[in-house]
Amino acid sequence: MITTNEQHEVQPFSFMRTPGFKSWRAVGVDISKTYFLLNFACKEGRTWVSQGMMLWDDEDLLGLCVQARESTSKKIYQIAKLMPPKSGQSAIWRWSAIKEIWRCQDERGEEVILYMTDDSEQEISHRTAIDQSRLKQVEQLFVASKKPVSILS
C-alpha cells in the first residue's frame, strides 16, 4: 500500500488538476507488496508532458493500459515491476522492465494476466502453479516501444 502525509502534498501539473487528484513529493510503501512504475505522457495542447506514476494494484495498472491504448492523448512508454525480497532472502528489491502485458484465459476460461519481462521471463499475476503453454492470449494490453518515444517539452 502507498501512504501519504499532508505536509508532502504539492501542486500537480494542470492536466492532473481535477477533483480527486493529488500530488506528493514523498510517499511511504508497504515493503511486502509488488509495485508498478510507469513512465507516460499526456497531451496538453500541442505539447506532450511526461509524468511518472507508482501503482500497487494490478487492476489499476490494467485499467491505465486500456485507457492509454484507446486514447490519442495518453501514451505509456515504459512499465517496470518492483518486487520485494522473497521470504527468507536478503532485503534486496528486484526490478523487471515489462515489455508486454497480455490478458489471457486458462484452460478453465479464467482470466490470467501475463507479464513478459525484459529478461525473457513470463510472470503470471496472482498465480504460481499454472501451465503457461495452455494459456490462450486474448488481448494485448501493453507493448513497450522499440524506439524512444518523442516527448516534446
What does this structure look like?
The protein is mainly β and 153 residues long. The chain has one domain. The protein contains one helix and eleven strands, in the order ββββββαβββββ. The strands form three sheets. Strands 5, 6, 7, 8, 9, 10 and 11 form a seven-stranded antiparallel beta sheet that branches. A two-stranded antiparallel sheet has the order 1-4. The chain has a two-stranded antiparallel ribbon with strand order 2-3. The mean pLDDT is 81.
What structural keywords apply?
single chain; 153 residues; mainly beta; 7-stranded antiparallel β-sheet; two-stranded antiparallel sheet; 11 strands
Task: Give the oligomeric state.
Answer: single chain
Q: Could you say how many structural domains there are in total? A: 1
Estimate the global geometry from the Cα principal axes.
Answer: globular
Count of helical regions: 1
Distance between the termini: 32 Å
The tally of beta strands, per DSSP, is 11
Q: How many strands, what sense, and barrel or not for the largest sheet?
A: 7 strands, antiparallel
What is the alpha-carbon Rg in Å? 17 Å
Helix content: under 10%
**Uncertain spans, ≥5 residues at pLDDT below 50?**
none
Provide the structure class. mainly beta
Query: Mean pLDDT score, rounded?
Result: 81
Order of helices and strands: EEEEEEHEEEEE
As a percent range, the share of strand residues is 35-45%
Give the gist of this structure.
This protein has 153 residues and is mostly beta strands. It contains one helix and eleven strands. The chain has one domain (33-143).
